[in-house]
Amino acid sequence: DNFDVSTQYLVALHFSTGLVTGGELALQPSFWLERVFATAVMIMGLFVTSIILSQVLVMINRHYERGIARNDQICRLREFMTARQVPLELQSKVRRYVENQLDVLKGAGEYSAMDALSPSLRGEITIYLHHQVITKHQFFSVLPPRVVNQICLGATRHVYGAGDLVLTMGLPALAMYFVVRGRLRIENMEGQSAIYLEPGSWLGDKCLFINTLRTHDVHVATCAELLCVSREVVLKACQEVPAAQREYMAFRQRICSGEIISLCPYCKKMGHSEQDCRKLRKDQSVTSTSDAIPRTISRSARKASGKLPSGASRLPTAMRNPAQGSSDRPFGPGRALCWKLHEVGAGGTFEAK
Question: Structure pTM?
């Protein structure tokens, strides 16, 4: 009671905050308005805490339901394979795929979420997602938008687990594949190391234009998501538009003449475009890092030479080193000057720090 009104209500606010946070305070409300304020804060804190706890419980329950659904799917598959006497090795492979499928879709979302949308909206989203993948190939980038949209709607998505066989050597090639997520391993039959394909790469584009066979076995190195574009879909889409048909025949002629259309112009390797070239990105990062590091000439080397390099600018008298006997000391006593010579092309300038 010896304090003013503002201080008293500040103490009341302090006490109420202690109630919400669980702090132990020796203060008790003595005025009716303080009691009303403390009670209102307690009720509001109860509601806020309840909302936060309910949201946490909802998230935990959703995670638990996903785990139950996955375990139920594994149990049903196990019962089916046991009843059909599927070999244990194949059973373990199926279980590993189901368990790793969640890791493949983690961060990318499930396509089944679009089932609640109308067909037109699903088509628009599908075109958007597939368009940015297939147009990395130069053939699809030059096709009319109408044809590209039709091919996007006809493309199919496949999810593979680690170690799965995607393509088998010697079988007819009927579709090309784009790597959306994960990594693929192409087995080399010539005794060299295997080739790995990263997201943004593709394989099998030659089969869209001519009849051919698979030349290598392709396995999944890590859980991967692939986008498959079949030859049938491409032919059907191009036949409806004369401009697209001309582009198709031009690319077919280039392949028949021996040209490799999927060759990266920078690294001279197949299966990706220049914008997805890892070697190009690596070289660009190294170049930017080297340009950011200034090249300096040490003070001892400058003293030994006794003169500045050609193109270097002299410092004004007021900026010279005080140790050289100059009476002008604009920086004040007790401050040292560090001189660096930064090369710029053939010349340079001094910088004071």
Answer: 0.60
